[in-house]
């Protein structure tokens, strides 16, 4: 099941974007290496800056892979933008925000460096990340027709 594969990646220490995206490497015709590298910078809210959730970013990349525009035609762009907005609405309905900082209940002025947090039992217990990864993997499976 795709959600389980995404959670396995997450528990192996990959970021949320990598975990969602790499779970579907085969469906997208990508090697595991490529599927881990492409979304690598999107983790922890883009480069650990706590912006848009990495799990959602991985989902958006999959949506673009499947339904992204291949022309600069505004109607083609509108279709992928509408799908992305729908996915964002679904995500926000489930979790309350798209912002990593808000999902983790971090103060707006909290300064964090680029160094990732150590993965411990307390890390996993204190964050919604695993649920976000599973949710986004389930949506990705729907998009790719793998549910």
Give structural notes.
By secondary structure, this protein is mainly alpha-helical. The protein has helices spanning 2-11, 16-22, 32-37, 54-67, 74-95, 100-103, 121-125, 129-143. The longest helix is centred in the middle third of the chain and has 22 residues, at 74-95.
Considering the chains and any ligands shown, give keywords for the structure.
0% strand; 8 helices; mainly alpha; 147 residues
Sequence of secondary-structure elements: HHHHHHHH
Q: In DSSP terms, counting alpha (H) and pi (I) runs of 4 or more, how many helices?
A: 8
Largest β sheet strand count, sense and barrel closure: none
| Beta-strand percent range | under 5%
Distance between the termini: 8 Å
Low-confidence stretches: none
Number of distinct beta strands: 0
User: Can you give the mean pLDDT?
Assistant: 95
Rg for CA atoms: 15 Å
**Estimated helix fraction:** 55-70%
Structural class, from helix and strand content?
mainly alpha
Write the layout of secondary structure elements.
Layout: H1 2-11, H2 16-22, H3 32-37, H4 54-67, H5 74-95, H6 100-103, H7 121-125, H8 129-143
Helix pairs in contact: 1-2, 1-8, 2-4, 2-8, 4-5, 4-8
What is the structure about, briefly put?
This protein is an all-alpha fold. It has helices at residues 2-11, 16-22, 32-37, 54-67, 74-95, 100-103, 121-125, 129-143.
């Amino acid at each position: 099941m795709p959600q389980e594969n995404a959670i396995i990646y997450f528990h192996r220490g990959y970021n949320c974007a990598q975990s969602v995206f790499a779970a579907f490497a085969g469906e997208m015709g990508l090697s595991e290496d490529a599927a881990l590298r492409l979304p690598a910078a999107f983790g922890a809210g883009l480069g650990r800056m706590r912006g848009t959730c990495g799990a959602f970013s991985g989902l958006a990349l999959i949506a673009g892979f499947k339904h992204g525009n291949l022309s600069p035609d505004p109607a083609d762009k509108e279709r992928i933008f509408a799908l992305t907005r729908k996915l964002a609405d679904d995500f926000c309905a489930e979790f309350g925000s798209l912002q990593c900082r808000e999902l983790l209940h971090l103060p707006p002025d909290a300064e964090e460096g680029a160094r990732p947090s150590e993965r411990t039992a307390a890390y996993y217990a204190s964050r919604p990340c695993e649920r976000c990864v599973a949710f986004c993997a389930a949506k990705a499976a729907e998009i790719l027709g793998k549910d």
